[in-house]
Design goal:
Chain lengths: 309, 158
């Protein structure tokens, strides 16, 4: 049951809640596509605090609340907020929870959302904390896979790119690891998934470390590609070599399974050639669009218990 | 050797004997107990003495001193094999091994500089203990990063 709960980490969401979120999200997707308007959140207010830049997460949360008939209050920039005057997260959130029914927060420090959830009297949704957690991204990633395959288990999933710093892959692998999935890790040596993180995964037998893209190209169902951050490289020649080896282009796509999908949390740089955007396997924009429906489902399940009306 | 020249460590009447301390860790034990010799307590420290069980060990005896729960937790981190003897009127009143607790509050400072507990937030540090490949790992309740025993010890000595 998600009613009244804060979601700080993907571990806060039970497996059975995953499916409830997916079903609810697909209902909302259909409703929105049919052009129907909803009033489930009429009279309810969401406050959003983005102390770090965000485009997709912020817009999709705000769109989700508006689509549900609720309203949104927000601090547009961190530098305009009381945090700039030295107010603690604890104090900011005490105030925010008296002004709204649900709080969404993104903050540059890890653990910020956990602190917020401890001081808030209303549910807090973590919109990303430093290089820590980003659970709603994971939920929309899982929903996109579920929508395509009707399941999030018995699949072969290849995580490609920056597996060291990318927070989305960390939450995602944690969630996928709850089920029977074969997971391939494809990354340059310096961006491999850290041992301290791998060690936290319970079922490691189906994780294929140090895979290369050619080995997994024809068997993978889901490619989850992440941006390789240029600033992590000391030697730019190394960056060029690495970036070239993970470019999803037409040649690569042609060798994939017919029903494979390519996902990416966006923004992308060079990892995916825009020429393949029209390919049926390109799912990253569908994935981004799903962000709204999954967040609608979450808000509804948390504030209303998701009762069907 | 002339017997008179040997300085013996007498039995203590009341206080604590911390035995089976990892060799060389006695000073760290004293440090976490904030015993620096400037108080009035009589303190005996034996380092790298032969031990049947451990090869060598350290022992710390402190007269007229009790240990709080938090101090036992600190000793368990500095020397997980240590045993505590509570002495009253020359008798061993209680004897037990320290144990690294499942949850550690307000002792460890998270070494992730970007962890929110290192900002001015009004929260206590909180770590959960996990066993990973036979080794203890300490997971920060807030940032969810882990520290190993060595890192935790180093942070306590800072």
């Amino acid at each position: 049951m998600l009613k009244g709960k804060s979601i700080v980490s993907i571990d806060d969401v039970e497996t059975e809640d995953f499916y409830e979120i997916f079903h609810r999200a697909s209902i909302f997707k259909k409703t929105v596509k049919e052009g129907k308007s909803l009033e489930l959140m009429k009279g309810r207010i969401m406050s959003t605090f983005f102390f770090e830049p965000s485009t997709r997460t912020r817009l999709s949360f705000e769109s989700a609340m508006n689509r549900l008939g609720g309203s949104v209050i927000s601090v547009s920039e961190a530098k305009n907020s009381s945090a700039a005057k030295g107010e603690t997260i604890a104090d900011t959130i005490r105030m925010a929870s008296s002004y709204s029914d649900i709080v969404v927060m993104r903050h540059p420090m890890e653990g910020a959302a956990r602190v917020a959830s401890e001081f808030s009297t209303v549910p807090v949704l973590n919109g990303g904390d430093g290089s820590g957690q980003h659970p709603t991204q994971t939920l929309l990633d899982l929903f996109t896979i579920w929508e395509k395959y009707g399941k999030i288990e018995d699949l072969e999933i290849s995580l490609v790119g920056d597996l060291k710093y990318g927070r989305t892959v960390h939450s995602l692998i944690k969630a996928l690891n709850r089920f029977n999935n074969k997971i391939n890790l494809v990354s340059p040596e310096i961006l491999q998934m850290p041992d301290h993180f791998l060690n936290t995964l319970k079922n490691r037998t189906k994780i294929n470390l140090n895979s290369n893209i050619d080995e997994v190209l024809q068997t993978t169902d889901v490619f989850y590609v992440t941006r390789i951050q240029k600033e992590r490289f000391v030697d730019l020649n190394d960056y060029q070599k690495v970036i070239g080896s993970y470019s999803f282009n037409q040649e690569l796509v042609d060798r994939m399974k017919d029903n494979a999908i390519i996902m990416h949390p966006l923004p992308r740089v060079d990892e995916i050639d825009p020429k393949i955007d029209g390919n049926k396997r390109a799912y990253y924009f569908i994935e981004a669009a799903n962000g709204v429906f999954v967040r609608m489902a979450l808000i509804d399940l948390i504030l209303r218990g998701g009762k069907v009306e | 050797m002339n017997e008179e020249k040997v300085l013996k460590i007498n039995k203590i009447s009341d206080g604590i004997v911390i035995d089976h301390i990892s060799p060389g860790a006695a000073l760290e034990v004293l440090s976490v107990l904030k015993i620096n010799g400037r108080g009035n307590l009589t303190v005996s420290v034996l380092m790298n003495v032969p031990s049947k069980k451990d090869g060598t060990k350290d022992i710390v005896k402190v007269e007229n001193r009790k240990l709080a729960k938090k101090e036992l937790d600190l000793i368990s981190i500095v020397s997980p094999e240590a045993t505590i003897n509570i002495i009253e009127k020359f008798e061993i009143k209680d004897k037990f091994k320290v144990k690294i607790p499942k949850e550690i509050k307000n002792i460890i400072k998270c070494n992730n500089q970007n962890c929110v507990t290192n900002a001015r937030e009004p929260v206590d540090s909180r770590f959960g203990t996990e066993i990973e490949g036979g080794m203890e790992k300490f997971r920060c309740h807030y940032c969810e990063r882990t520290m190993d025993l060595k890192e935790v010890r180093e942070s306590l000595m800072k």
